[in-house]
Please model this.
Amino acid sequence: MNSKGMTLIEIIVVIVLLGIIGLFIFQFVGSSVETYIIASNQAGLLAEAKLAMERMAKEIRDANNILAPASGSSGNSINFIKSHSTAVDSDTDITFQKSGSTLERKRGTNPPEPLAGNVSSFNVTNNSNEIKLELTLSLAGGENVTLHTKVYPKNLPFASEDFGGAHFNGDWEEVVQ
Model:
């Protein structure tokens, strides 16, 4: 028998096989795209959380009086007096607080300024000369990032035996040139 074409059965078998192969490829590509989106969201959350933590740590290091939370306690905000004002920021009474899903920075009596969004939790623990910060940012898709840090204010009054007797007597200042 000399046939010059394909039968209907052969065409159906080829279509079914291509469909199965296409399904596996689609699932592989789909999961790769989903993984990329999750990683991209995580990277965005991490960048936002790092920026907020660095800003808070820098300002808390310049504190000469922690007003809240009291020594030995915790809370979802921190209020302190900075030792040094800047040309851009003359207020020295600073508060970092969680309001809804936003981390805010409040200067004196001015309205709060947003520092980070998608905040699911913000905890501050005051252990005398050590301030512990914990910040968690979350998205609706389940992505989340939690950062922890400890900050040691340089200008708080403390006993000379703390930190080996070395202190700055309220004169420490972080200068950016």
